[in-house]
What does this fold into?
Amino acid sequence: MAIPRFWREIQSRYNLIGTKCGSCGKVDFPPRAVCPVCGRKSIGKMQRLQLGGKGTVVTYTVIHDAPAQFEMQKPYVMAIIEMDEGVRLTSQLIDVKAEDVTIGMKVQSSFRKLGQEGEAGVIHYGYKFRPAG
Amino acid sequence: MRDVAVIGIGETEFGELWDRSFRDIGIEAGLKAIQDAKIRSEDIDAVYIGNMSAGKFIDQEHVSALVADYAGLADMHLPTVRVEGGGACGAIALLQARLAIASGMHDIVVVGGAEKMTDVGDVQAAEILSSTADQEWESVFGATFAGLYAMMARRHMYEFGTTREQLAAVAVKNHKNGALNPEAQFQKEITIETVLQAPRVAEPLGVFDCAPLSDGAAAVVLCEMQKARKFSDTPIRIAGSGQASDFLALHDRRDLTTLDATVIAGKRAFHEARLQPKDVQVAEVHDNFTISEILAIEDLRFIEKGKGGPATAEGLTALNGKVSVNTSGGLKARGQPVGATGVAQAVEIVRQLRGEAGKRQVVGARHGLTHTLGGTGATAVVHLFERGD
It folds into this structure.
């Protein structure tokens, strides 16, 4: 896959940059050009916002059947996390045993390697989450 | 809008068809449907094809012209359309073809659905399926397609107390139905223990909670209702259709245990048909995972929200239960050639409403429903069918 595809998402994947609607205040991640609540009213009013990195596990799974790129990591935990700002995202959970993960668990973001495009390809980075504490 | 009916159906067997190409299966289903409808090729006005990802599975795009060509229709220079919409593409093709006839533009349209999935390895095929989820904000982080549905299942268990055994009951029921379907990929009954002891895929889901990778094709011939009576004694009218979309990524949705797209597509179809869930005797719903069927029977209002698990375990959705769900075996046992799904579901419902379903015939079937999902529910399509006599 082309390097620009990873490069252009760096702001959100490294720094959790999203947007806040200038009209209703709803936070979105990744950034949106149009607020799903306000529609046209929000155009031109979407403000850049960095998420604080803290959130709560809403649901999770342990992946045993993994894509080729994640073969070495399996089994690994994926979760949907509700950030303190209200927006949700999907991320891997790390530094925790699968059996210790619970719905409602508090987690915080951590900057990690996400994957590698083969032997000579680009290494790409982004967020994973670990237990808060 | 003019009334539209199904006058012909055809399908291939579903499974790992190593000796058959995309062309072979597409043509077989189409020709069977044309024969069943007793039309001549000169009667056909257009061809619509549902196909999810021939580009990735067999390196071939432009499959609509290809299928018409190999069906011997090249010299007729028909308009051909390929529809993409993840797993819902076949159901959307059916809806678009219906509209083309309802509008008066065409009188007879052949709708095909086909996917050739086994020319790539299992891991690659699973990755291609995952591409209907959000590649940039789900897949890149390691979320697999099964993993996303597993997270819906976990949340459903948490909120409603749904059990692992209740999820397994979906697979057991659909395998039981599949055992009565000679075209099904799996024609063997299984037990709850088989499902529970199977290797894990994405917890809480295991191998037997997941529909297989399959090759297969299905086709229907649609015709304007007045004209349909000339070809068929039992034209099956499309009484209502609804399609809806939602946020692409699961995490952006309003609720993780309700697919709003299904709810809304269902409401639209029932509203148009002036029917209610209680009027439906037989339904083919999108059981790509066991949890998907639980969500579908709840979101289509056959069963109260949260009660889909116990309802399945108690047999309310079994053959000739309160509503017979996935009599064909569903995606789970009949097989899951993605592009064929929506069309194959329609084939099963037409068969049921004609009274030609043999050992799996639903007694007194008068109204039937198909429900098809794209991705993790960012697209849903519902069609309602009724006997036209």
Remarks:
- Chain B touches chain A through 36 residues (CB under 8 Å).
